[in-house]
Structures are given as structure tokens and as C-alpha cells.
């Protein structure tokens, strides 16, 4: 009996549709000849949705997301919509989707492919072989805590933001990090600022309790400041790193430098639950998207690197659909394509002409078949 996974495609703006097309063709090629089928639905998000119906995410497309096993998103935004107020800008569609779908865990793997060790501004011997996963708490902490406001009184202007965490929020993200570590090299680093912040002291306490349930996991705590240094001085010492929202926002961008180009980086956002769609064969609902934005400077020119999107699709196969074998095959095909020197402009070697988005996608598919 065949298994059918429903994927909602939300290409978004700029290079989003270009990279999504290639990534979807790669996952179709990866399951060709198996009992697995993908059923794609399409929706609009960001600027494309604003242009079509005046809002960055329609109720109808949100419902389509709920009726799917996974959402595959490109990127949103661009100069055309920069003048709009915050609530109606393209980014509001993305934030609305994350909130409505309770996507509390943001996973950003950073793997340095051997062929690209020289593409990072860091020394080859530091980055070569680095392979880590930042697990960022996405729906709590400073970005959502109240009060968060500007104030003016006779003494002058002031502003306040609040960093709340409940033990339930900490427990579920650290637990997920431990489960992910089991599928990797079995090590978790929990990052906090427990020497100063109450919220971090609670984080450390709860993280220690969760870790006690995973005797097979090597668990350590790290302070965020020294961890920021270690991330670029000894990145190979990390496997899974778990942290609260703001620390994760900053450290995941720092970790991105290791890979050499934004165009290389995938991400997943999970809610830890099975899809709500009746009869779904998927194990965990998730939204998958490349880390990069809409790259307006190269959009529509066939220059975008589709690897970030392709590796995001591979994460979808692994985390939501349990198709580890096919995900491994895609990751290997990407590595082989890079080893063979086939690269878009952002990662091209000096003196070697870059290939187009479509040519790189086709090269990955050829190596999958081979
Ligand atoms: N998740 C998202 O949807 C998301 C994330 C970041 C930025 N944005 C939006 O994207 C727009 C542009 O933002 P930005 O310029 O700060 O970031 P960006 O990621 O779009 O681009 C930064 C640089 O990286 C390059 N780049 C990005 N993706 C690439 C790819 N796949 N291949 C090759 N090169 C690539 C771009 O050409 C550019 O030089 C803004 O409207 C911003 O709000 C959206």
C-alpha cells in the first residue's frame, strides 16, 4: 500500500519560488520507484499574498497548512512591501503561521561540506568537519513577553522588554533536543546565562531534570557568552545546541558563517505533535524553509543557490515523514555535487563559471539517480 504525504507549498517572494521548484523536484526524484507519494497543494504567503488578497496570510491558506503533513516555504519580503505597517508586512504572514501552528522548536543544522571548507572566512582546519544543530525555542522569551513597550515620562524616554519562561516551554524543547541528539552523535549543549538571569537559572534547572531521563546522552551546560566564542573557535566540539529564543536567534546566525553561504542553510520548525490531518502517515508536523531571505538582488535571474531549500526538504523527509534513507540519499547527492565542483555563484570557485539554480538542481537529481 502506498503512503501519501500532503505537502503545502508556500513559495513566497523573490528567489523563494525558484529554489522551492528545484527542491520539490529533488524529493520527487528521491522517492521515485518507492511506495511513497507526495501530494502537493499550493498557497500564497508574504508579498505574493498581499498582492493577491491584501493580507500576508489568508485564513484559507492557514487551513490548508493544518490539512497538510508538512509545510514547505520559500521566503517572504522585499522592497516592494517595505513601506507597509508592521502588522501587514510580508513577515507578519510568517510569524502568524509559526504562532498558529505552535511551532515552538526551530532547528538549524550547520554542516560544513568538505568541498566548501575554504568558503568560510574562518580557517579551514577549524571549520572542516563541523556538523552541528542549533535548536532554538521559538515561541517564548523576550520576543513575546509582556510588558514590552516604549514609555515617556518627565524623566525622559525608557523602554522595557520581558523574558518569561515556563518550565513546560523549557521541558519540551530540551526533550526534543535530546531526541534529536539520539539520531545524531548523542551530545547536547544547553546554552544559558544562569550566572545572571533568573529565567536562565530555571532553564538550567529544568534542562538538568530532562537530561537525567536520557542516560545515553552526553549533556553539558554552557554560558552564552563563552559559547559564542567556542562556536567559532572549536565548532567541531558541538553536536546539538539548545537555547532560548534570543540566544538562538543570535548564535544560529553566528553558526551560519561556518557554512560559507546563506544559500546553503536549511531549517525546520516543529511543534512536536503529529499532523492533525486524519489518516496522516506523517510522524511530526513541521514547517521547512531555507534560512535565507528573498535575495531581491538576484531574484528572477536563475542565480539562487537551491541547496538550502533542498536540505530543508531533506529535513522534512527525515523529521516529518520518517524517510531517513531518502533524506540520507539527498544529503549525499548534495555533497557529491559540491565535490564535483558544480556550484552557483555564491559558492563558486574563482575561475570556475557558476551554474544556474536549475542546473544545480538537475545535477543533484542526476547524482541521486546514479
Ligand atoms: N525567512 C524569510 O522569509 C526571510 C529571512 C531573511 C530575510 N527575509 C527578507 O528577504 C529580503 C532580503 O533580505 P536580506 O537581503 O537581508 O537577506 P537575504 O537572505 O535575502 O540576502 C542576503 C544576501 O545573501 C544572498 N543570498 C540569499 N539567498 C541566497 C541564495 N539562495 N543563493 C545565493 N545567494 C543568496 C543575497 O543575494 C544577498 O546578497 C528582505 O525583505 C527580508 O525581510 C526573509
Describe the secondary structure blueprint for this structure.
Elements: E1 3-12, H1 16-31, E2 36-42, H2 47-53, H3 59-66, E3 70-75, H4 90-100, E4 105-111, H5 124-127, E5 131-137, E6 145-153, E7 156-162, H6 167-182, E8 187-192, H7 198-211, E9 218-223, H8 224-233, E10 240-243, H9 245-256, E11 266-270, E12 286-290, H10 307-320, H11 324-339, H12 357-369
Parallel strand pairs: 1-2, 1-3, 3-12, 5-10, 8-9, 8-10
Antiparallel strand pairs: 4-5, 4-11, 6-7, 11-12
Bound molecules: nicotinamide-adenine-dinucleotide.
Residues 15, 19, 75-78, 94, 262-263, 292-298, 304-305, 308, 344, 346 line the site of nicotinamide-adenine-dinucleotide.
- Helix segment tally: 12
Q: Into how many domains do the coordinates divide? A: 2
Radius of gyration: 20 Å
**How would a crystallographer describe the biggest sheet?**
10 strands, mixed
Note the gap between the termini. 26 Å
Hetero ligands: nicotinamide-adenine-dinucleotide
Q: CATH topology of the largest domain, which one?
A: Isopropylmalate Dehydrogenase
Task: Name the poorly predicted regions.
Answer: none
Question: Largest beta sheet: what is the strand line-up?
Answer: 2-1-3-12-11-4-5-10-8-9
**Architecture of the largest domain, CATH level 2?**
3-Layer(aba) Sandwich
| Beta strands, count | 12
The CATH class of the largest domain, by name, is Alpha Beta
Order of helices and strands: EHEHHEHEHEEEHEHEHEHEEHHH
Classification by helices and strands: alpha/beta
Helical coverage, percent range: 25-40%
Question: What overall geometry do the principal axes of the alpha carbons give?
Answer: globular
Say which CATH homologous superfamily of the largest domain is assigned.
Answer: Isopropylmalate Dehydrogenase
